[in-house]
Design brief:
- This protein is α+β, with helices and mostly antiparallel strands.
- It is 33% helix and 27% strand.
- The protein has 14 helices and 23 strands.
- The strands form six sheets. Strands 3, 7, 8, 9, 10, 11, 12, 13 and 16 form a nine-stranded mixed beta sheet that branches. Strands 20-19-21-22-23 form a five-stranded mixed beta sheet, with helices on both faces.
- A hairpin with a 5-residue loop joins strand 22 and strand 23.
- Helix 2 packs across helix 10.
């Protein structure tokens, strides 16, 4: 993409109404624009990051055998009456009537719809286990939408639902989701710690939230600092291997880590004092096992091996896809702007031409740009007729992790500069070497 032809409405001024750094940076970098309270348009740069996050979520879900689908945003009130949640949900649910006077709502979550689909189409235990998921917009009429995409009213969520014959199988699905979530967040350059949480209106016994530690987080958390030393890394996971998934679950959830809702002072006191931490965190996901709560209410049963009809065991699992942009920026920025982790960056590399209009720098930039594209690396080429300082400031603000700088002085020696946004270190090398380096870096971040 050539910046002169792109739509990147960066703001010079810091928006006064944005209270936290991720919100300020998303506005300044021209990623989002508020449409009304808690509702945003995704401008091209923000949209690219959103799509990359979605892609990682899809890949990690499908790696575990979970099946993508799409349900509507608008739902009929009938199903929610059947489950008993129509009245229970309260004012966060946006309700309205269509022209036939039918009661409708904008889905805040989808347990009812998915359970209806499954009850109409699944009759035998032989069709289980099954995990279906979608990435779809949700609406919750939050009392206090704030912090930009972090607490919106309309927001993008991955919601997945597992259907199993037995409690044991459903708990495997729970463990399997925990592993997929750990891998998903790690690919985004984030550490998200699973913490025992409270199940709220969804109901059920087992639930963990995934929290990214950040001072601006809305949740209060308590944990043993040793949990921050564990990571999943590159290990091979067989998602059908119940023992292996259970072992990962145990490894990540045995040390003390709880949100304030489930915090227990007595248990916390058993953590060695120098490892006791209380902090704030951003909830980027949550997994639930709730047994037969919805299948009982909605009559979702299967015939078991003995021919008897039994309710299906279920769980639901959510990732805050749009919130993740805010969480990643909270975790990765400096006073000049965003620093995207390689896994989610909107473009792999920025190209800065220090002397636009000069024939040799222009043609060198064009060549690098084309070579990158032919290797599947996306570049944002700043080909505007601007001062070098302004170009650097824009690149730093929008946070591409790598920058190639092309100027007449370096070119006279056949060199360009490759700069890391994270460390600020620059290295001189040939354009070919810079491209090869980027190819290697991104091979680890497909
Ligand atoms: N108002 C919101 N704005 C942005 N993301 C949200 C919002 N509410 C929930 N999410 C994200 O969706 C994920 C799944 O939602 P869920 O756990 O059902 O929400 P909650 O914890 O608010 O009840 C949450 O972990 C969070 O990351
Ligand atoms: Mg939650």
């Amino acid at each position: 993409m050539r910046l002169s032809r792109y739509f990147l409405p960066v703001l010079k001024e810091t928006p006064a109404d944005a209270q936290i750094v991720s919100h300020r940076l998303m506005l300044r970098a021209g990623m989002i624009k508020q449409a009304s309270a808690g509702i945003y348009s995704w401008l091209p740069l923000g949209y690219r990051v959103l799509r990359r996050i979605e892609r990682i979520v899809h890949e990690e879900q499908q790696r575990a055998g979970h099946i993508p689908m799409l349900m509507p945003t608008l739902q009929s009130a009938d199903l929610w009456r059947e489950s008993g949640r129509y009245d229970a949900y309260g004012p966060e649910m946006l309700r309205f009537k269509d022209r036939q006077d039918r009661e409708m709502l904008f889905g805040p979550t989808n347990e009812e719809l998915i359970t209806d689909i499954v009850r109409s189409n699944i009759g035998s235990y032989k069709q289980l286990p099954l995990t279906l998921y979608q990435i779809q917009w949700k609406f919750r009429d939050e009392m206090r939408p704030r912090f930009g995409v972090m607490r919106g009213r309309e927001f993008l969520m991955k919601d997945g639902y597992n259907f199993d014959l037995t409690r044991e199988d459903a708990l495997h699905a729970y463990n399997r989701h925990l592993v997929t979530y750990l891998r998903t967040y790690e690919r985004m350059g984030l550490q998200a710690i699973p913490m025992r949480a409270d199940s709220g209106p969804i109901g059920g016994d087992d639930t963990h939230e995934f929290l990214v530690l950040a001072e601006t987080g809305e949740s209060e958390v308590f944990y043993d600092s040793a949990v921050t030393d564990i990571s999943l890394g590159q290990r091979d996971i067989d998602y059908d291997d119940k023992a292996q998934c259970a072992a990962v679950m145990e490894e990540f959830t045995t040390l003390y880590a709880r949100t304030d809702e489930t915090h227990d002072e007595t248990l916390f006191a058993e953590v060695p004092e120098d490892r006791r931490r209380s902090a704030r965190g951003i909830e980027v996901g949550q997994i639930f096992y709730f047994g037969t709560k919805y299948s009982d209410a909605l009559g979702a049963t299967v015939q078991g091996p003995d021919g008897k009809s039994v309710p299906i065991h279920m769980g639901s699992h959510g990732i805050g896809v749009s919130r993740l942009l805010g969480a990643i920026i909270e975790a990765s920025h400096d006073d000049r702007g965003i620093i995207w982790p390689e896994g989610v960056t909107p473009f792999h590399v920025g190209i800065v031409n220090l002397r636009q209009g000069d024939q040799s720098t222009d043609s060198a930039c064009d060549g690098i740009y084309r070579q990158l594209e032919s290797e599947g690396l996306t570049a944002l080429y700043d080909d505007r007729d601007e001062r070098a300082g302004a170009k650097f400031a824009t690149m730093d603000l929008i946070g591409l992790p790598w920058r190639i700088t092309v100027g007449p002085r370096g070119l006279s020696n056949g060199k360009v500069e490759l700069t890391s946004r994270r460390t600020g270190t620059s290295e001189e090398m040939s354009p070919e070497a810079a491209i090869a380096r980027l190819r290697d870096i991104y091979a680890a971040h497909p």
